[in-house]
Amino acid sequence: MEGTLHNLLIGFGHVFEPLNLLVLLVGIILGLLVAVLPGLTLVMGVVLALPFTYGMHVIPAIILLTAMYISGTYAGAWTSILFRVPGEPMDVPLLWDGYTMARKGEAATALGWTLMSALGGGLVAAVVMVLLAQPIAKIALTFSTPEYFAILFFGLASVVSLGGATLVNALISLFAGLLIATVGVDDTYGTHRFTFNVPLLSDGIDYLVVMVGAYGLGEVFLRLEQGFKSAPLQAMHQIKTRLPRLREMLAYKGTFVRGTLTGIIVGLVPGAGATVASFLSYGIEGQYGKRREALGTGIPEGIIAPQTAATSSVGGAIIPLVTLGIPGSGATAIILGAFLLHGLQPGPQVFATSSNIVYAMFASVFVGIIVMCVIGYFAIKALVRVLEFPEVIVSAYVVMMCILGAFAARNNIIDVWLMVIFGVLGYLFERFKFPITPLVLGVILGPLAESSFMTTMISYGNDWTIFFTRPISGPLMAVAIITLVYPVFRHLRHQSKIRRALKSAD
Amino acid sequence: MIGGARFIRALPYVVAGVAAGYLYYVASNFQFHERPGTLGPDFWPEAILVLMIVTCLYKIVSGLVTRNDATEIGGVLEEIVEESVEKHAAGSPLGKPLVESHPYLLIAGMALTAGYVIFIQRLGFFIATVLYLALFIMLGGYRRWAVVAAVSVGGTLLLLFFFMKVVYVSLPIGQVPFSAVTLFLMQVMGIR
């Protein structure tokens, strides 16, 4: 515990270095803008910031992306409450009570509850993150390749199962990602796999190219097809935030606790990020809240529940990223990408090899949340004004950043072509409702999954049952399979409910 | 009519399945020296491709047999979101926004992006990017010419400066005579 506090203090020391503090401030503002700007999503924003970190030292690079990730879970709430324009899918539940409150003339109060929810939920989750990370990493240090493969299998299974699409489409997306990861020269045999005599493909397809293309360019193509129509805004001059009093906040302590716990737990599960946390927390409030009947009529609980969960999911999601090297969402996948770009492999060893970087990241979460709320309180009016910025200009620059990001990775135009191909693929995925996150996580985690599987097979004489018979990997594989099968059961139960209801209606 | 709809629904899976089948053929012809008792480099991609083909076949068959998407198994998130939206949005004034479709705009945008990648080596980063940004913004329906000019020229100069001077990325200079423009700008900005 003392060691953790000491390391955290060193982390704060890194964050408070003038350059790093400036980077954090820039990251927070960029994250807030990304969440508000039409045509940009949180994940896109973090992807587009990645090329700017090429020339940076690893600590400011991680601080920049983490700061963007944190603030991206907050500012979308403003547009949801004020203009009925959810910045991100995670902000949709805020429409039901937040926008309703704004319509009743209580927009300032609604924004105040959002701010305090983000602050409270985010800070509690950050404390939990610091307390849990090292013990989990210590346990993970005892793992061998079967356990590691089981963890990866569980991570990928939950991404598929929890993803925002049908199970089959998520599976196809994941398989495509795993397949893309096999392109290049095989490490063990030196065999060229799917290189089709293109020399650049011998080095494999850079995951950055896939991420930038699928998340960035694909989204721009989709918006281009829709004709860049931004929602008209009203009442810009009335925007201000009224913070709730301590006594008012204590009246909703149950909602705060439920929302924060939901966010942390959901954040810990790979594949379930801020969106699941937000919707699930709203649902839990609807089940167990004191005023559950009034939910949706414009009450603070309808804001506190989704917002605490969305921001606290950040702390939860950083734990598996740092301790196991498994990103649970698009944004954490990109932060993992930044670690890898700087030659660092997150995982159990990272606390021994690069604890200063990890704790600087942890400290940046604390400082970032506070800075985000201060900026949010004082600069909301100015930041929301960017909504008036023409979406087509934002999108033109998004494309440009995608192209530069892909080109800068290896200074090769073929990477730009690959990025454009993945952009078209990303568009087709969106169009035909295939989720992109399993594809991206498949590309990133594919090599790790293959190497841990193949090493296990070599070590245990091709006995695949080893994954199910070892004390840690066995239960993990079982949980992974249950995770995969669960949506099928859920679906069958739902269908039988409908059939019963139809029968009784007849 | 229903048959046509079913075929369109099954089409992405047919394409994915056929592609997976071809890639399986490629994977089964990988050149390597076999080691007895050890899985080859073809095992992992082949296993993924088999799973992909099976998944596509399931989807094609179920898509052709069933009339609509009622039998689709949604991910947990999708179901949570759908349930919440159904429950809370029913009595709310929030209707589903109408989504327009402009396929020609999309095709033109894709062609413009491909054209940019083709011509950037010849025209150089500055000229190609100014043209691309201006054309893309106009394609999106924006018609304030002064803003278009300022955003495309000013933005390109900023990008050129940042990536060449700060991040040290060697952006395409272009071929003669276009390279003269980029070289001149590099000289002005003090980029070597």
In short:
The complex is a heterodimer of chains A (506) and B (192). By secondary structure, chain A is mostly helical.
Q: How large is the count of helical segments of chain A?
A: 22
Determine the N-to-C terminus distance of chain A: 64 Å
Q: How widely separated are the two ends of chain B?
A: 64 Å
| Oligomer description | heterodimer
Q: H/E order of the elements of chain A?
A: HHHHHHHHHEEHHHHHHHHHHHHH
Low-confidence stretches of chain A: none
Task: Please count the helical segments of chain B.
Answer: 7
Average per-residue pLDDT of chain A, rounded, comes to: 86
Query: Helix/strand-derived class of chain B?
Result: mainly alpha
Strand content of chain A: under 5%
The class by helix and strand makeup of chain A works out as mainly alpha
The amount of helix of chain B comes to: 55-70%
Tell me the number of strands of chain A: 2
* Count of separate structural domains of chain A: 1
Radius of gyration of chain B: 26 Å
What does the largest sheet of chain B look like?
none
